[in-house]
Every structure is written in structure tokens, then in C-alpha cells.
Amino acid sequence: MDDEWQVVEGTGWIAMPGFGRIAPRRDNVAGGRQYFTAHVDGDEYATASGAEVTGGPETYYFEFDQPFLLADRTREQCVEATISLLVGGRYAVKYRKGQWPSGGGAW
Fold first, then answer.
1. In this structure, are residues 25 and 31 in contact, taking their beta carbons and an 8 Å threshold?
2. pLDDT per residue over 5-18, tens digit each?
């Protein structure tokens, strides 16, 4: 996978070539919550992080069009992603290679 944005669309499990797959969904059409479950290649659950992402470790809540990170458990395979709602209840997932933040701490 390169650093260029990739876009995939669909419903149900949406393949993200080079990373895995993601299943975005909503509680209801008139509002409610948006959430997703994601797997990396090999069917392991992905870990998510971002300012507008909560929940886990298997299902995460998110806000449309807000960036977040997805990674495998070792954080070696990581993508930056956004999810948008399309007409007819379909989703667009935009993603590219990402970098999981290091452990950090005081400097």
C-alpha cells in the first residue's frame, strides 16, 4: 500500500485492499449512532484510535467524515481512514497508509 488515498464503496463488509475489511453501519436512518467493525488481513480485529472514535475492542463508534487510525495489534500495519455516507445507505471508505502514534510521554 502506498501513501495515496484509496476509496472503496459498498455496504456490509467492504474490502480495503492492502489492509483488510471494514463494516460500517448505523442504528437507524433518522439519527442514532454510527459504528464499525474492522478486520486486518488474516481476520484479526483491527484497533482504532481517533478524536471522534470511541468503543472497542471489536466495535467502534465514529463520526462521518472524521479521520481515524486503524491498525493490527502490533501497530505495524496502520491506515488513516474516513467513512462517508452515500446515497442509498452505501458507505465510502477513504484510506491511506498511516502511522500509529508512538507511546510518547513527557520530554
1. no
2. 999 999 999 999 99
Q: At 46, give phi and psi (nearest 5°).
A: -85, 155
The tens digit of pLDDT for each residue in 36-67 reads 999 999 889 999 999 999 999 999 999 999 99
CB atoms within 10 A of CB 96: 16
pTM exceeding 0.85: yes
As a whole number, the mean pLDDT across the chain is 92
Strand residue runs (E) in the chain: 6-10, 14-16, 20-28, 31-40, 47-49, 54-55, 59-62, 68-71, 78-85, 91-97
Q: Residue 35 burial by CB count (10 A; 0-12/13-18/19+): exposed, middle or buried?
A: middle
